[in-house]
Amino acid sequence: MRHVGKSFANHVVLNDINLRVDHGEIVTLIGPSGSGKTTALRCMNFLEAYDKGDVLIKGQLLGYSGTQRGPAHVDSASLIAEVRKPLSMVFQQFNLWPHMTVQENVAAPLVLGKKMSRQAAKAAAMAALGRVGMAQKADDWPARLSGGQQQRTGIARALALNPELLLLDEPTSALDPERVEEVLDVIRSLAGQGMTMVMVTHEMAFAAHISSRLVFMADGHIIESGTPRQMFTQPKSERLKSFLAPLF
Ligand code: ADP
Question: Which Gene3D superfamilies match (predicted)?
Fold first, then answer.
């Protein structure tokens, strides 16, 4: 993200955001509620149109061209879809389709988006469900699942797309406390497999443990960033110090 800015009406939500994520990194956005973390994540995927700066994915501009504001291309929707192909996203509220089974939820984007055959999509869905320990629930309806199982299905759906970068937006904050750990375990195992991730979470101990870099945001700005050790032991700004203070 280069100099990315975003406003909702008169409210500036992101201000000159500069953030580079390299292959193999796990970057976690932290900061108080309302600081712009989710919006930043959504701009990375063009789920939210930013209004200043550029987002580049593997060197390709996402959504806008150069200094010219407005769609980059006449056929901008398909261009955006093409550029953001290496990304997939896990949502706070899972966003599963209630009328589809677990397996169909994971397979549908492969058939609709990737134009896979139903049979190939089913096999890929089963493999992704296996990675999150949900293969035995493949034929269940989402409503029959616990929140943790629904979110593991959401993660499987993102993984089935074979992303190079996984975006996770508060993946455990809609869960009952006793369901949080099973989802964190899945994310830990993806980290162990070298998955590149950008995540928003309030699970600070987990973030400190798993992240290669923490990025602290407040009021739409990146205030500071660094390794978890740097951020926890030598916070530079008063704002980060006071954000972290309740943890100690
Ligand atoms: P965080 O993830 O750090 O809690 P968000 O990115 O969700 O912050 O929100 C940042 C600010 O943008 C908040 O003040 C929020 O109310 C506002 N905001 C987010 N989405 C919208 C929207 N669709 N319309 C208007 N305001 C929004």
Answer: P-loop containing nucleotide triphosphate hydrolases
Question: Mean pLDDT for each consecutive 10-residue tract of the chain (248 residues)?
Answer: 94 96 97 97 91 88 58 57 86 94 96 91 97 97 96 96 96 94 96 96 94 98 97 96 90
Bridge pairing between strands 196-200 and 165-169:
parallel
Q: How far is the CA of 145 from the centre of ligand 1 (A)?
A: 29
As given in the structure block, the two tokens for residue 99 are 């009328």
Residue having the nearest C-alpha atom to atom 1 of ligand 1: 34
Strands (E), the chain: 2-8, 11-17, 26-30, 52-54, 56-57, 60-61, 64-65, 68-71, 87-90, 165-169, 196-200, 213-218, 221-226
CA-29 nearest atom, ligand 1: 3
Q: Is the ipTM of this complex over 0.90?
A: yes
DSSP calls for 40-66 = HHHHHTTSS--SEEE-EETTEESSEET
Of all atoms in ligand 1, which is nearest to the CA of residue 217?
3
